[in-house]
Design brief:
The complex is a heterodimer of chains A (337) and B (262). Chain A is an alpha/beta fold and 337 residues long. Helices cover 27% and strands 27% of the residues of chain A. Chain A folds into 2 domains: 5-196, Rossmann fold, CATH 3.40.50.620; 216-336, Rossmann fold (3-Layer(aba) Sandwich), CATH 3.40.50. Chain A has 9 helices and 18 strands. In chain A, the strands form 4 sheets. In chain A, strands 7-11-6-1-4-5-12 form a 7-stranded parallel beta sheet, with helices on both faces. In chain A, strands 15-14-16-17-18 form a 5-stranded parallel beta sheet. In chain A, strands 8-9-10 form a 3-stranded antiparallel beta sheet. In chain A, β14 (221-225), α5 (232-245) and β15 (248-251) form a beta-alpha-beta unit. In chain A, α3 crosses α4 and α5 (232-245) packs parallel to α9 (323-336). Helix content of chain B is 28%, strand content 29%. Chain B has a 9-stranded mixed beta sheet, with helices on both faces. A two-stranded antiparallel ribbon of chain B has the order 2-3. Chain B starts with a strand and ends with a helix. The longest helix of chain B is centred in the N-terminal third of the chain and has 17 residues, at 36-52. With 262 residues, chain B is of the alpha/beta class. Chain B is globular and about 70 Å long. Classes of the chains: A alpha/beta (337), B alpha/beta (262). Bound molecules: flavin-adenine dinucleotide and adenosine monophosphate. Residues 6-8, 35, 37-38, 41, 59-62, 94, 97, 101, 116-117, 119-120, 123-129 of chain B line the site of adenosine monophosphate. Flavin-adenine dinucleotide binds next to α6, α7, β17 and α9 of chain A.
Chain lengths: 337, 262
């Protein structure tokens, strides 16, 4: 809601909304708690994890180990499946009751559905898909940085006149803290209330499509291909290298649009964001929309015929050559030694 | 039942710019196109209207030239188009935009279904669809990849998430945001293009939709862009390998072993 400057102090603490999928707290929650901890510590405030779900109570303590001081737990059978309207109404009521300064959610399918609804119900702003968050030392407001225009521009956004300050955070950009065994905190139980909005949908079935879920997000090594890979058969070569080094296979949009590999492999602005230890880009020129999805990888290796592409300039190791000649040699070399 | 499809005109991605002083998107002088994701929303609206009976209306908020994306919508089969255009709307963030669109939907009356694209490629927020649903107090289903069933009582939908999808049933009225997977948009027919040129597109102002002007434009927007900058360059320990394939492969593998990667 709109507030007067002197009312700012009555909004306190940083909330992180636990991402729950299939009844399980997802790792992105630890990243949210990591950045929430940082923000809260600069202001001497607490981190609250908000855990909404059915049968999730057993996972509350674990959130304390990952950095939460308080866990606001709502464990109700009606919260099975993803009921946007019910969850948004509930969160809005809890926000009104406890008045958090900041609420962070994951920029996932669920977070991007729920948070905008909460923002409107609370009559406050929301910044989508943040890649940077900090507290402005002068005003104490949340500085929210996000890529716009396909990553060509980084915009910094404030919501000084409204509370709470809401942001969704892009997965795998923020660092989680080390898990701390024996860290203490408090679990606060809340329930659904008579006035909460009823569920407006019926969730019939949930499919976990393990086959087509390419776990790029958690891969240590990614071998990724672009237009230079030239065909679906070309990707077989990349897969051979990937199998050899225990890597997942990624792709640029050009490769996906050409039909050589499925969308689940796409990395970039309209695909997944990855933060692997090693990213091997094969025949990918490195347009900004691709770079925003992979440039926080630790070591980037590029293979390209053209020595002057953005990817080759960005890479830690840039190999000038034909990928169809170089990759088989790499495989041979790994086998040899 | 009326179906409203919300469409946005966006700068063609290659010439997108931000005004260094006002921090707002420079729309003057740039090529503008219909937001690519919204073509899927339009196609689904037209299909569902045929199946369920009723009218499809394309709705856009933007400067006068945004009329072009509404003409495109007509050429793709919608029955009617409405443009929200007035200085008071300028500078709206997703809160204010979804408020204005919700007011317009309420003004149209008799609307049972609103369809939005997954996101607009300029802001990439994906917030306007759920925002409209919240302002109207309607149900929402986002990231819809398939309409499995549609009848007068409601819809059965497949919603995508990070691990697969779920299947939900929702009654009318509701708001959907749709993914590319949902359909294959048609190409406009010549007849469609001709009728689109002739169509009179009404332009609505805040007064026409009974909007509280305090909730519109920059003043009505809780968020403010305070700074824009190009992304910072990455620090790289750039090393170049060139030579015969066997030679570079040897050097690479040796390097990865020293780094402890292999
Ligand atoms: C709104 C929007 C969203 C987008 N989102 C994404 C996204 O999420 N992800 C994404 O990747 N892109 C995205 N793009 C597209 C992006 O702008 C580029 O078009 C795309 O990344 C280019 O893919 P590429 O590098 O594979 O192809 P190209 O740019 O064509 O590069 C191919 C490279 O392969 C090299 N090559 C060719 N043959 C060989 C060979 N035999 N050996 C070695 N090298 C060779 C060439 O020298 C060249 O450098 C988006 C674009 C828009 C407008
Ligand atoms: N100004 C607008 N006019 C009409 N529809 C819009 C407008 N802005 C956003 N939308 C709709 O909301 C969707 C999501 O946009 P966004 O939240 O800006 O990413 C778009 O695909 C459109 O369907």
């Amino acid at each position: 809601m709109r507030i007067k400057p002197e009312e700012k102090n009555s909004w306190r603490h940083v909330w992180a909304l636990a991402e729950v999928l299939g009844g399980q707290v997802q790792p992105v929650t630890h990243e949210l708690l990591g950045i929430a901890r940082e923000l809260a510590d600069t202001r001497g405030q607490q981190v609250w994890a908000v855990l909404l779900g059915a049968g999730t109570a057993g996972q509350a303590e674990e959130l304390i180990a990952w950095g939460a001081d308080r866990v606001l737990l709502v464990d109700e059978p009606q919260l099975r499946g993803f009921q946007d309207e019910l969850e948004a109404g509930l969160l809005t009521r809890l926000i009104g009751k406890y008045q958090p300064d900041i609420l962070l959610g994951a920029a996932t399918a669920r977070g991007r559905a729920l948070m905008p609804r909460v923002a409107v119900l609370c009559e406050t702003g929301l910044t989508a898909d943040c890649t940077g968050l900090a507290i402005d030392p002068d005003s104490g407001d949340l500085l929210q940085t996000r890529p716009a225009f396909g990553g060509n521009i980084l915009a910094t956004i404030f919501s000084a006149s409204h509370r709470p300050q809401l942001a969704t955070v892009r997965p795998r950009v923020m660092r989680a803290r080390e898990r701390e065994e024996g860290r203490t905190g408090q679990v606060i139980r809340e329930g659904l209330a008579a006035g909460d909005s009823p569920a407006m949908k019926r969730v019939l079935e949930v499919f976990q499509d393990r086959e087509s879920v390419v776990n790029l997000g958690h891969a240590q090594i990614i071998v990724s291909g672009g237009r230079g890979v030239k065909s679906a058969r070309g990707f077989d070569l990349l897969r051979a290298l990937a199998d050899k080094v225990g890597a997942a296979v990624g792709a640029s949009r050009a490769a996906i649009d050409s039909g050589w590999i499925s969308y689940a492999h796409q990395i970039g602005q309209t695909g997944q964001t990855v933060q692997s230890k090693v990213y091997i880009a094969c025949g990918i020129s490195g347009q900004i929309q691709h770079l925003v999805g992979m440039q926080s990888s630790d070591t980037i290796i590029a293979i390209d015929k053209d020595p002057d592409t953005p990817m080759m300039r960005l890479a830690d190791i840039a190999i000038v050559g034909d990928l169809f000649e170089v990759i088989p040699e790499i495989i041979k070399e790994i086998d040899r030694v | 039942m009326k179906i409203v499809v919300c469409v946005k005109q966006v700068p063609a991605s290659s010439d997108a710019q931000i005004d260094p002083v006002t921090k707002r998107i420079v729309r003057e002088g740039t090529r503008a196109v219909l937001n690519p994701f919204d073509t899927y929303a339009l196609e689904e609206g037209v299909r569902l209207a045929r199946q369920l009976g009723g009218q499809v209306i394309a709705l856009s908020m933007g400067p006068p030239k945004a009329e072009a994306c509404l003409r495109e919508a007509i050429s793709l089969g919608v029955d009617q188009a409405i443009l929200l255009s007035d200085r008071a709307f300028g500078g709206s963030d997703t809160y204010a935009t979804s408020y204005a669109l919700a007011r317009a939907i309420d003004t149209i009356g008799g609307v049972g279904l609103v369809i939005c694209g997954k996101q607009a490629v300029d802001g990439d927020t994906a917030q306007v669809g759920p925002g409209i649903a919240a302002h109207l107090g309607w149900a929402q289903a986002t990231y819809v990849m398939k309409v499995e069933r549609a009848d007068k009582d409601g819809l059965r939908l497949r919603r995508m998430n990070e691990e697969g999808w779920d299947v939900v049933e929702v009654g009318f009225p509701c708001v959907l945001t749709v993914l590319k997977d949902i359909n294959q948009p048609r190409v406009p027919t010549l007849r469609g293009v001709l009728s689109a040129m002739e169509e009179q597109i009404p332009v609505w102002t805040p007064a026409d939709i009974g909007a509280d002007t305090g909730k519109l434009g920059l003043d009505g927007s809780p968020t403010r862009v305070v700074r824009t900058a190009p992304p910072p360059p990455r620090q790289t320990a750039s090393k170049r390998l060139a030579g015969s394939p066997a030679q570079v492969a040897g050097e690479l593998v040796a390097d990865l072993r020293t780094r402890g990667i292999l």
